[in-house]
Design brief:
With about 425 residues, the chain is α/β, with parallel strands linked by helices. It has two domains: about 260 residues, FAD/NAD(P)-binding domain, CATH 3.50.50.60; about 120 residues, Rossmann fold, CATH 3.40.50. It is built from twelve helices and 23 strands. Helix 9 links the parallel strand 11 and strand 12. The longest helix is centred in the C-terminal third of the chain and has 18 residues. The chain is globular. The model has no long low-confidence stretch (mean pLDDT about 95).
Length: about 425
């Protein structure tokens, strides 16, 4: 079986690349082993929040000029990065995902009540232009009894530092008793599935009206909008006051919804998804990949003209390590990583961790190499790339989206 392009991986980068190729008429296959880091997404995308020297970034598209030459944004070209960033909202809108954002970073609340910069925010993530912005003076913070992935006390502490008076309440609904009986089931996505039913959502809103006093703003965890965001508008209209939706711990509702919608857009464009399988190796001849092998298909190779590696970093098993080295486990590609184990990490959990910036070596066209030889029909995209310390920089989603778009265009250019 032969395709125009085979993409290895199933996360944000793989799906972005696949959608772009499929919409251009290419016969594209995505091979994904399981759930991706998209389920961790908290309702926003980061482009660049901090430079390597620690300088905070307000205007990311200007700040990328200060990044080192090894950074993916610089490798593919600053003008290309800006062009792809400018097209991102339209790209996702075509997939049914509405995002808002400007050339300046926005601010959103995390599940612990801290504020964090973001580039683009989804409809169910309340984002502010300034860190000091507030929508009211008295906040009612509401959660669901038994839900442990949202922290009203931390949120209240953060808001009170801004001079906002807070009151925390917990709502108990009979319809959630089955979930509440098992802590492992009391997760945001399971609650959101239950809240899809109009009757249950109306009961929740009725409870809010009952416990409300003189508050002028409502804080809710992201436990709505599993299928789409119409439920969010229903709640905003029903409660009669501004509503701020705050992210929860994973799995997140906006992340799962985004993953589902991107998969749907890929298949609607004619792409093929192979879920629950993983690439185990490749046949490489003359500096090109001829075919890849998978666990489920055994010795039966899948052929393509082009291949994209978008397997992610350590979390997605796109990178791996033993006691002596960091390596790329699927194709045996060359990696950029320190050879000294004690330089991989800091003993302090909250320090910068060098291994986050490790990844496969590529040229400026994102072609990886093996044993020093570039593979001309293979592209790498997303967090499997070296050069971006995504957690420290706040650049993970931006690198995933922009390098995926670049790789797709290089393939389309032939």
């Amino acid at each position: 079986m032969k395709f125009d392009t085979i993409i290895i991986g199933g996360g944000l980068s793989a799906l972005t690349c696949g959608i772009k190729l499929a919409k251009a008429g290419r016969d594209c296959l995505i091979i994904a082993s399981g759930e991706s880091a998209l389920s961790f997404n908290s309702g926003s995308f980061g482009l660049l929040s901090r430079l390597p020297d620690g300088t905070a970034v307000e205007e990311p598209l200007k700040a990328i000029e200060q990044l080192p030459s090894s950074h993916p944004y610089v490798k593919i070209g600053i003008d290309n990065t800006r062009r792809y960033a400018a097209s991102a909202k339209e790209f996702f809108a075509d997939c049914g995902i509405s995002l808002r954002g400007t050339e300046r970073n926005l601010w959103r609340y995390t599940s612990s009540g801290k504020m964090k910069r973001c580039w683009l925010a989804m409809e169910d993530t309340t984002a502010f232009v300034s860190r000091e912005d507030k929508v009211g003076d008295k906040a009612l913070i509401v959660t669901v009894k038994g839900f442990q992935d949202f922290f009203p006390g931390f949120v209240a502490e953060s808001l009170e530092k801004k001079g906002i008076s807070c009151r925390c309440e917990s709502i108990e609904l009979d319809e959630l008793d089955m979930l509440r009986s098992n802590a492992s089931e009391m997760r945001a996505t399971n609650i959101a599935l239950t809240m899809e039913k109009d009757k249950i959502r109306k009961s929740f809103v009725k409870e809010i009206s009952r416990i409300r006093q003189d508050e002028d703003m409502l804080i809710l965890p992201q436990i709505f909008g599993y299928e789409d965001t119409r439920a969010l508008e229903d709640i905003r209209k029903a409660v009669g006051m501004p509503v701020t939706f705050i992210s929860t711990l994973m799995p997140s509702v906006p992340g799962i919804r985004t993953q589902k919608m991107l998969k749907k857009a890929f298949e609607a464009a004619g792409g093929t998804l192979m879920m629950g399988d993983c690439v185990t190796g490749a046949v490489i001849e003359g500096g090109k990949i001829k075919s890849v092998l998978t666990s489920n298909l055994g010795s039966y190779g899948l052929e393509a003209d082009n291949f994209v590696l978008a397997t992610g970093s350590f979390f997605g098993k796109g990178l791996a390590s033993d006691f002596t080295k960091i390596y790329e486990p699927v194709l045996g590609l060359d990696v950029d990583a320190s050879e000294k184990r004690d330089e991989w990490y800091s003993s302090s959990f909250f320090d910068r961790q060098a291994f986050i910036g490790f990844g496969v070596k590529t040229d400026n066209d994102l072609h990886p190499s093996r044993d020093g030889e570039a593979i001309s029909n293979l592209y790498a995209a997303g967090s499997v790339l070296s050069g971006a310390e995504s957690l420290y920089e706040g650049s993970g989603a931006g690198v995933a989206i922009i390098t995926a778009m670049y790789a797709a265009d290089k393939i389309l250019e032939g």
